[in-house]
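Can anyone check this?
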Amino acid sequence: MATKNKTEMTELVLLGLSSRPEMQPVIFGVVLIMYLMAVLGNTLLVLVACSDPKLQTPMYFLLSQLSLIDISLTTITVPQMLVHTLSVDRSISYNCCMTQLFFFMAVGSMEGHLLAAMAYDHYVAICAPLRYSAIVSHSLCLRITLTSWVVVSLNSLLYSLSVTRLTFCGNKVTHFFCDITPLLKLSCTRPVVNEMLIFTEGVAVVGSPFFFIWCSYVRIGIALAHMHSFAALRKALSTCSSHILVVLLLFGSLARMYLKPSSSYDLDQDRQVAIFYTLISPMLNPLICSLRNQDVKGALWRLFRKLHTSAWLSDKQRMRNKFRRTKG
C-alpha cells in the first residue's frame, strides 16, 4: 500500500482479536458477557460506596473512583470491538482513532494515580491511625483526584499529538482499538521521539505512582513488623492484600505492553495483554476489592435487602389498589 501521511489518512482499519470468521460469534459472546460483568460489578460498587452511610469515608470514595475508571476503560474500547466483531466494515475514522487514543491513555494512567492515593490512605490508616481523620479527608482526596486528572490529561494530549505527526505506511491496525503500540508499528520510520517520550515522560507519569506505592508499602511493612495485636495485623493484611493484587495486575500489564522499543513489539501477544488489561482486570477488580472486605459485603447485603423490601412494599401497594378498585 502506498505511504500515507497524516493529512491523507482519513480512516484506519482495526483488525480485531482474530481474522477467522468462525471465531467471531464466540469472541462476541465471551467478550459481551465479560463486559456486562465488568460494568455491572463496578456500577454496583459505585452505588454501594455512594449510598451506604457506613462507607462515606475517603477510602471508599477512592474505591468508587477506581470503579468509575474501570467502567470508562472498558467502555472506551470494548463496545467498538463488539460492533467490529460482527461487522464486515472494521474501519474507524482517523479523528475518532486519535480521540480514542487520548481518552484511553488518560483513563489508563489515571488508574495508577488512584491506586497511589489508595496506598497513601492505607499508609496513614496503619502507620498513624490516631491522626487519620486529621490527615486524610474527602477534600484531600478530591484535590488529589482533580490534580491527577490534569496531569494524565496533559500527558495523554502530548502522546496523541506526537502520534499525529507520524507518517504511516498503511492503515491496517493489528489491534481491536487505537493504542499507541500498534500505531507506532505503522510508522514508516522508527518513531524515535515517541519512544523517548515513553521511556522518559511516560515512565515519570506512570512510574511515579508505582514508586510512591512501593515506598508506602515499605513503611507499612515496617509498621506491621512492630504490631503486637494479631487482630490488627490480620485486618491490615486483609486490606492491603486486595490493593496489592490490583496494583500488580495493572502495572504488570502496563510494563508488558509499553516498556520496550517498537522493534521488539509482538502485536499478537500485545493484544492478549490488552484484553486482560481492558476487560479481565476491570471485571476482577470489584471481586478483589469486595470479597475480603467485610464493610463492602455488609453494605451489599443492606442494599439488596433494601431493594427487596422496596419491591415487596411496591407489590403489596399494587395489590391493595387493585383490591380497592375491585371492591369499588
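Reply from J.R.: I decoded it. The radius of gyration is 23 Å.
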